[in-house]
Amino acid sequence: MLRKRLFSILLLLIMAAYWLINLGYRPNTRLLPLFFMTITIIFQILAVIGDFKPEFGKKFDVDMFGEERFEQDGPKSTKTPFVMIWMVAFFIAILLIGFIPSIAIFYFIFMQMYHKKPLLQSIAIPLSTAFIIFVVFELLMDFQLFRGLLFGAHVSL
């Protein structure tokens, strides 16, 4: 129960940090991300409250697969620290080197560590994904994605 609470709080803090980073974008660039992040943060606040007050959380509980299945296939507690470390590292990478390079690097690491894909495939897919994100968001939609503190970006609070 403690791990679930810590994970929910960490997730809320990361979402709040992303929300604050979005304030540094141009108004037309930040509008859509702020809208969705605000909704997501509201739901995460409800989830955190539900973690601390189970009677509150039961009001919003949706049993999609049946109680028995959740207990059998529920998250393994040994994976929780790894997921938390992965999320924090990804956030720090975005903060330092920017959004697009972080996606490519973490996608590469994931394909090598988890899927054990060939090296060429593990390089080509993350690079093409980063390229597509760049073309769609930066060029076509004129969004300014976060560049990272090491590349001259600044965080406005």
TrEMBL record:
Ranges of residues in domain DUF1468: 7-145
Domain of life: Bacteria
Keyword hit for Transmembrane: yes
InterPro entries given in the database record: DUF1468 (IPR009936)
Signal peptide residues on this chain, from the entry's feature table: none
Classification via Pfam families: TctB
TM spans (from-to): 6-25, 32-50, 83-110, 122-141
Keywords assigned: Membrane, Transmembrane, Transmembrane helix
Protein name: DUF1468 domain-containing protein
